[in-house]
Structure formats: structure tokens, C-alpha cells
Amino acid sequence: MPTLITPISGWGRYPVQPCELARPERYADLRSDEGSVIARGQGRSYGDAALNENRRVLLTERVDRLLELDVVNGILRAEAGMTLARILDVIVPRGWFLPVTPGTKFVSLGGCVAADVHGKNHHHEGSFGDHVLSIELILADGNRVTCTPDDKTELFWATVGGMGLTGIIGEVTLKLIPIQSALMQVHHHAADNLERLFHLMQDAELDDRYTVAWMDSSASGKNLGRGIVMCGHHVGTAELPDDLHRRIKPSRNHSIPFDFPAWALNPLSISAFNSRYFKKEGGRRYPFLSNYDPYFYPLDAIANWNRMYGKRGFVQYQCVIPDATALTGIRNLLDELSASRRPSFLAVLKRLGTQGRGLLSFPMAGYTLALDLPIRDAGLFVLLNKLDEIVLQHGGRVYLAKDARLSAESFRAMYSRYDEWLKIKKEVDPQNRFSSSLSRRLEIG
To answer: What per-residue confidence (pLDDT) applies to 253?
Structure first.
């Protein structure tokens, strides 16, 4: 398999590292060659999870065939390189949808398993791994094994959320959910502060199948944590209005063709944007219909949107804090962010349900906050270390699929089942062949 040394990065464009890239053309070419290797799908993890500095990265983007689709029972089997975008193109017209989806559809099926991604419905339906029926895994010795929640169970749950470190995910079988249309009914609820935002998210009468909150990270004082709770569900045929064509606006796609200058995203510009957005979207008093794309994947309509953070890139900091300490912990995080004068252009709050069953899965019952922070200077990393301390004090953890700088010590304090995972990892990969820049930074394996 031909290889090429190329500098690459994750979606945050930080860090950039030289890696030996190999791109297999077909499933039979997927193999664990000698030396360190990590699989990479679409490169949409934000930090160094799919980097392997000066070592091999196996690009799976061409190993992307749809192998089987049971349209009666809603079961899909596909190669791991297939993207959610292509899957949706196939299943939505046939009355099915993904059981769980992250905030972008331009990710691979294998990546969703490796990161055990979660979505706006986690508080009701769990994470991606909860809906996976089987995984075909290529081990370090070259053997291909099928593991399920009931067979080779330990390996299955070490792989779900295991960041690609137990083997190469080759095929995935997934249970889909039925839908009656491609439309969503969405209802916005504005909150003037964090306490009100939490109250709305906990209100059973307002809750829907999918719930997410946009937050104004530049707000402070009595308005700290103000935001908009966005609740939605798939529209049934009985809910479709007669004048549907008048209510649905066609989606518009845009592109950012160049890197924004460093000064473009500053406290003043972010505050102005957030104020306008809060007024506009918070003022929508009544439920409205939307295509599924703008509800689930709003940023996918802007190609190369990561370029707006400039050449230095950005860090997405995503953490979860358990229910009992979530309000205090999130408030402390926002206070620290406000004091730093580094507001996030995008701040999202979601409610998570039960603890993920994957041994290194990110979700736990609580609230997850995601912040996009441009890299302007080294002071950002000082701030992020402070945020880690707050998260640890409140019993939370940082999401590995978004991470680019967490310490090994903090990782071990956050992920209590690491020792269980490591035992399985050593059994199937005793020479630690599957490794990444993230795993070495966190001293995993």
C-alpha cells in the first residue's frame, strides 16, 4: 500500500503533524501493518485523535460501501468509511433515520463508533454505541473478528468509545429508527440567564425527542448563561400542513474560501453576533417546520467553516458535568470564560442521559458544554487548564474526540474505567500497535 508523509490536522486545525498516510482502495486492503497505525475516517475529530505523528495513518474514506439495508426492519450494514451524509441520502427517502447523530453528517460510520458519538436525544436514547448491533474489527494480529453486545462483549464495549485503539473498525451494523417525513417540528424557548436555561431544559412539558441549547458565551452578570433551548421531533404525516411548500424555505449552502484574519473573531464581534442571534432566534414564539439538515447540521451548510478561526486554528473544549453539580459547575466555567475575555463563537449545552456503556465513552448523566475557542496565544491553554480543574472538581470529564491538550493525569482522573479498558487492550494488542498522537499524549496503552 503506497504511503506519503504529509502534514495533517483534525477539524480544529491544531495541532498539525507530519503523518505517513496510506489509503486503501478496498476492504480487503485494510490491514494492521507492522509498526504504529491509527485509522482515520473524515478527519472530523477536532484534535489529535486521528493523528499519528511520524507514523502511519490509515485513511478509510474509500472503504465506504453500503453492504446491506433491511428496509422492513431498519437495519443497515456498511463499511466503516461510509459517511452519515451518504447513509441519510439512502435511508431518509425510505422512511428511516439515524438513531443518534452528532452535529455534522460529514463523519464516518467507524468514527461514530470509535468516539461513541452522542446527539440531541441522548437524554432519551443514549449514544451511538447503544444502537450498534455488531462490529467487524481487524485486530493487531491480522485476524478479523465480529463482536456484538452479546458476543465478545468486553471487546465490543472497549471498541465503542475506544478511539480506534483496539483495532481497525471495518464494518458496522446499525439499527435505524422509523420516520414518516424528512421534516422536523421545532420550538424555541428563550432564557435570560443560566438558571432559567436549566429550568427550561428540565421542564418535562417542554422537552421533546431532541433538545439542545445555544448559549451566549459573551453574556455576563445577571445575563450569564442566557440562551435558547431548541426542542424538536420528526414530523408525522398527520402533522403535515396543506400549505407545506410555503412554510419550508430551501436550504442555502455557503463556503468560507479563505482563512479569516486573527482579529476577525474578537470579544466585540462575537458579542455583537450573539446579541443579534439571541434576539432573532429567541423571538420565535411558535413552533415551526424545518428540514432535518438545518436542525441537526446547521454548520454543514458552510463549507470549510473552520477557516473562520484563522491559520492558527481553534480548540473545541467539550466537557460533561454530572446532574448533581451541573448548574454550579457550568456557571463556574462560564465565569472563568467571561473573566478571560475569550468568549466562544459557538457555545452549546446538551442534556445527557445514562452513563455510556463503552469503557472510555464520554457521556454520563448530566450536562455537556461545548465551546469553540480560537488560538490567539499561549494564554488560551492556561485558561483550558483552569477549566479542567473546574470540571474535575465537579466530577466531570472532557470529550476525547474534541480534545487536543488534556494531560495524562487529568485523563486518568476523569475516566474511571480506564484500567478495565487497558486490560482488554493489552489482550488484543499486546505490542500497542494501534496508537495515535492522542494516545501517546495521554499515555494510553
So the answer is: 77
CA 75, 78, 83, 88 torsion-angle sign? negative
Q: How many residues does the chain have?
A: 445
Q: What single-letter amino acid sits at 272? A: A
Task: Tell me how far CA of residue 395 lies from CA of 229, 321, 331, 390, in angstroms.
Answer: 25, 6, 15, 9
- Quote the CA–CA distance of 79 and 143 in Å, as a whole number: 17
Domain 66-179, architecture per CATH: 2-Layer Sandwich (3.30)
The residue ranges of every structural domain in the chain are: 66-179, 183-407
pLDDT of residue 266: 85
Instruction: Answer for the pair 359, 161: CB distance below 8 angstroms, yes or no.
Output: yes
What pLDDT was estimated at residue 1?
62
Three-state DSSP at 214 gives strand
Pick the CATH number of 183-407 from 2.60.40.10, 3.40.50.2300, 3.30.300.30, 3.30.70.2520: 3.30.70.2520
Measured CA distances, 189 to 184, 186, 206, 234, 325 (Å): 16, 10, 9, 18, 24
What is the pLDDT, as a whole number, of residue 2? 63
Q: Average pLDDT by consecutive 10-residue portion of the chain (445 residues)?
A: 85 97 92 86 97 96 97 98 97 97 98 98 97 97 96 98 98 98 95 97 96 94 96 91 61 80 83 91 91 94 92 96 98 95 91 94 98 94 98 98 98 98 97 97 93
The alpha-carbon radius of gyration of the chain (Å, integer) is: 21
ω into 149 cis (within 30 of 0): no
Q: Which helix (H) or strand (E) is 215 found in, with range?
A: strand 210-215
- Three-class DSSP category at 75: strand
3-class DSSP state for residue 229? Answer: strand
* DSSP string for 136-196: EEE-TTS-EEEE-SSSSHHHHHHHTTSTT-S-EEEEEEEE-EE-S-SEEEEEEEEESSHHH
Nearest alpha-carbon partner for 49 in 60, 64, 36, 38: 38
Amino acid 250: pLDDT: 61
Q: Give the up-direction half-sphere exposure of residue 153: CA atoms within 13 A in the CB hemisphere.
A: 4
The strand pair at 366-374 and 314-322 is best described as antiparallel
